[in-house]
Structures are given as C-alpha cells and as structure tokens.
Amino acid sequence: MNALLLIDVQLDFMPGGALAVPGGDAIVAGLNELQSHYDLVVATQDWHPLGHRSFASSHPGQAVFSEIEWQGLPQRLWPDHCVQGSPGAALHPGLDLNRVEAIFRKGTDPDLDSYSAFFDNGHRRATGLGAYLRARGITQVAVAGLALDYCVYFSAKDALQEGFSVEVLTELTRGIAPATIAAARQDLLARGAVLR
User: Fold this and answer.
1) Nearest CA to 104 among 136, 133, 147?
2) Domain coverage including residue 191
3) What is the CATH number for 115?
4) Distance CA 148, CA 132 (A)
5) Using CA of residue 47, residue 52, residue 53, residue 55, what is the dihedral sign?
6) In a domain, 152, yes or no
7) Rounded CA gap, 193 and 196, in Å?
8) pLDDT tens track for 46-97
9) Whether 8 is catalytic
10) pLDDT reported for residue 172
C-alpha cells in the first residue's frame, strides 16, 4: 500500500506569501492529477502560534534567515508565516482535498520548530503520522510539496527512518536555494530514497 504526502501546500509558501518558495504554485495542478494513483493521500500544514520562536520577530536584533541556537538545536529564523488561523496558513485553494484523508499540523509548539511531517526538529514529539500510516498498512510513501530543501527533505528523511520506502517526487516540489536543494537531494539519495 502506498501513500502520497502533500507537504505544506499553503498560501504563505506561494508567490506573494510571507515565505514564498519560487514557483510554489506551479505544482498544485500536478499534485491534484497524481492523487488518484495512491491508496492514501495525507496533507500537512505548518501551523505556528503567534510569536513562534522560529520567527525572527521573536528574537530582537536577529535578522530574517540568520541562524541561532535554540533549545540546543540550530534554528533558522524565518519571517512570520503560517500563523494559526491566518489567511497565509490556509492550504492553496486550488489543491483538491477530496481524497485527502487527514491533515497533520506541525510547528504548533511555540518553542520548537517542526520541518518534518513526522516529528519536531528535536525528535522529542511525534506528530502521529508514522503510526497513522502503519495502521493503514502503508509501506511506501511518496513525498511532494514545499519546500524541497526543508519540510519535504526532513519529512522524507524521517519517513525512511520510520521504515517506509520513500520516493520524492522532485517535479512536484520546489525549493528555496540551490545549495540547500542540492545538499538535500544528495543526502536523500545516500539514505536510500528514490528521486524522480
């Protein structure tokens, strides 16, 4: 049994959004077309409380995109984005949700970021996605969405660690920066993911 994970297809990651991923909106139609090829479709939603510690605005004097140490982990500081209940946190209105059986929200802990669909960045708390997939007999996971070099990458990496075979649908992802995209691709291949 296979599952398609639609990672963070949200307005704040689209062109014009608070943390826009270049070309993010170009993948929506392809994600819709692909859903019928999978036994299960699940989506994620970045869902931060106001004042989340991953926001540069929560660290006076720190610049957006700088990196600090927070809770013993490296933390990239982002513009405020995907704030719970805000228009930017909404899934793209063009994304077909008819086959989406569950939406897992992440980044809800105000003190700890969560790039992965499976765990927070410190692997301290699971989202429940791994158990959800196993309970439905899923053994193969395809990952698509935004952004390739962050949430797609960490979700795929954790899916491998959770024992799923993983395929990253690179034509249905977009990334933020060429260097981090290349590093993510190389690491996923080395860990046994299939990139197509």
Assistant:
1) 133
2) 2-48+89-195
3) 3.40.50.850
4) 23
5) positive
6) yes
7) 10
8) 999 999 999 999 999 999 999 999 988 899 999 999 999 999 999 999 999 9
9) yes
10) 99
Supply angle C-alpha 40, 159, 72, rounded to 5.
135
Q: Which helix (H) or strand (E) holds 189?
A: helix 178-191
157 is catalytic: no
CA distances from 104 to 8, 16, 21, 108, 159 (A): 10, 24, 21, 11, 14
In the numeric block, which tokens belong to residue 29?
């139609």
Residue 150 and residue 152: Cα distance in Å, rounded? 6
- Which position among 8, 12, 109, 120 bears the catalytic label? 8
Burial code (b: 16+ CB inside 10 Å, e: under 16) for 14-49 equals beebbbbbeebbebbeebbebbeebebbbbbbbbbe
Tokens of 5: 């994970």
Our answer to whether residue 106 is catalytic in this structure is yes
Domain count for the chain, please give it.
1
Choose the catalytic residue: 80, 106, 109, 149: 106
Q: What is the mean pLDDT of residues 172-180?
A: 97
**pLDDT tens-digit profile of 179-194?**
999 999 999 999 999 9
0.85 exceeded by pTM: yes
- Cβ pair 82, 45 in contact under 8 A: yes
